[in-house]
Amino acid sequence: MRALLLIDIQNDFLPGGSLAVPGGEEILPLVNALQPTYELVVATQDWHPATHQSFASQHPGRGPFEQIDLHGLRQTLWPDHCVQTTSGAEFSAALDQHRIEAIFRKGTNPEIDSYSGFFDNGHRKSTGLADYLRGRGVREVHLAGLAADFCVNFSALDALREGFEVVFLQEATRAISPDGYAQARQELQRRGARFGAR
Ligand code: VGL
Ligand code: ZN
User: Fold this and answer.
1) 80, 55 Cβ separation under 8 angstroms
2) Catalytic residue check, 151
3) Which tens digits make up the pLDDT trace of 169-195?
4) Which domains does the chain have, with CATH numbers?
5) Strand partners, 174
6) Using a 6 Å cutoff on CB, does residue 46 contact ligand 1?
7) Which ligand is nearest to the CA of 147?
8) What does the pLDDT read at residue 197?
9) Nearest residue by C-alpha to atom 4 in ligand 1
10) Looking at the whole model, is its pTM more than 0.90?
11) Which of these, 85, 88, 89, 66, lies nearest to 76 by C-alpha position?
């Protein structure tokens, strides 16, 4: 069976948010229209403590979008975003939530970032999402949400690694960087992800 994964459709990634993805709000009508066509809808939620080390604010002298080494991993520094229990971390009020059966939170460990809904960026800890999906009989995962070049991309890569068929719903995502997205797309296609509408 097929599941729809809604990645990080949260206020901070939408207009007025601290890390707004260009055009992010444009996906909402499509995401809502798609949901009833899937047997299972699952969401991820970026959920950082205020001291998360991916925040530029935690590194004096550094600014957002600079790169640093964080415990051996390359880390892009971000504006503070999706801080636990703040309105920026909430799902968009325009997102229909009534069909979402489970929410997987990520990015809770302040020392490591977590773009994928399946694992942290070092693949050290699983969120349990892959086992949950398998337990529900899912074989095919369709992805939508924000941002195409970060959390949707890394979730798609991990879904492939976990052996799921992967469909990247490109009309239902938007990217932070067009170049980053073009590269991500090539790699995903090389690994067998399909792109397009459902
Ligand atoms: C994301 C950057 C930092 C995303 C999350 O959801 O794509 N990007 N945290
Ligand atoms: Zn984040």
Assistant:
1) yes
2) yes
3) 999 999 999 999 999 999 999 999 999
4) 2-196 (3.40.50.850)
5) 146
6) yes
7) 1
8) 74
9) 151
10) yes
11) 66
